[in-house]
Amino acid sequence: MLELVEVSKKFGDTLAVDRLSLTVGAGEFFALLGPNAAGKTTTVKMIAGLLRPNSGRIRIAGSDIVRDGTRAKSALGYVPDIPFLYDKLTAEETLDFAAAVYGMGDAEGKRAKEEMLLRFDLLRERSMLTEELSHGLRQRLVFAVAMIHKPRLMLVDEPFVGLDPRSTRSVKDALKGCAREGGAVLMCTHTLPAAEELADRIGIISHGRLVALGTFNEIKKAEGREGSLEEIFLKVTASSS
Questions:
Q1: Which end of the chain has fewer CB atoms < 10 Å from its terminal CB, N or C?
Q2: Which residues, 6+ apart, have CB-to-CB distance to 143 below 8 Å?
Q3: CA distance 41 to 35
Q4: Using one digit for the tens of pLDDT, what is the confidence trace for 122-165?
Q5: Alpha-carbon distance 170 to 151, whole Å?
Q6: Residues 6 or more apart whose Cβ sits within 8 Å of residue 63
Q7: Cα separation, 110 vs 131, whole angstroms
Q8: Rounded CA gap, 109 and 91, in Å?
Q9: Could you give the CA distance from residue 240 to residue 179 in angstroms, rounded to a whole number?
């Protein structure tokens, strides 16, 4: 579903991402972890087509994000670390707009909108302006927008920041549902317990390089130690400094 091959990105003399290769298959929930300035958000922005890699190849559902960006992005649902909503649109209007952007017809768009309002428990807020919504409700609406066209890959960057337990559970359920339905999920997060709970596989990136990859148990075995994901994360990122 997602393939990165020897992907690198430089900003001036700074190498932010260094020959990164990884794959995320259909039905897989993948967590990409790393300390600040490790290259996570740069990687996500390259996958989303917001940044162009200096070298390497990125494919989404078989389409190259640089050479065939429109087709690749049509298979993508993206929730950035700082999402944007139009404050003067209602929740319902926001979803109508998203459906139109993805080229959905009136009937298909209406069905998808109602499904998203129900899935993210936004029926009571459908007529509220987005500027009137709490942070948790806005984040649920952002996910509804990203998932309205049933993307084959969900790409999310720090989805749980500032969320209350109810909104956190709603987002977790939506992401797990995407993977169960045969989609793929790539999530960047500093919330290590969420990564341990949700992810089928974990990648840890430091200084733009992948320093650990596998299931949690595989990473523990490779590092030759027991312990929490936090302990292993601190060890592998310290040793790569």
A1: C
A2: 79, 120, 159, 170, 171, 174
A3: 11
A4: 999 999 999 999 988 998 999 999 999 999 999 999 888 778 88
A5: 18
A6: 71, 72, 75
A7: 23
A8: 14
A9: 31
| Angle between helices 135-147 and 106-119 in degrees, nearest 10 | 140
Beta 76-79 vs 153-157: how paired, if at all? parallel
pLDDT confidence of residue 18: 93
Tokens of 215: 């299931």
**Burial (CB count <10 Å: 0-12, 13-18, 19+), residue 231:** middle
135 to 12, 73, 141, 159, 170: CA distances (angstroms)? 36, 26, 10, 12, 13
CA pair distance 234, 212, nearest whole angstrom: 12
Q: What is the DSSP letter of 138?
A: H
Q: What's the whole-model pTM score?
A: 0.87
Q: In whole angstroms, what is the distance from residue 235 CA to residue 60 CA? A: 32
The number of beta carbons lying within 10 Å of the beta carbon of residue 150 is 13
- In the chain, CATH 3.40.50.300 sits at 2-75+152-239
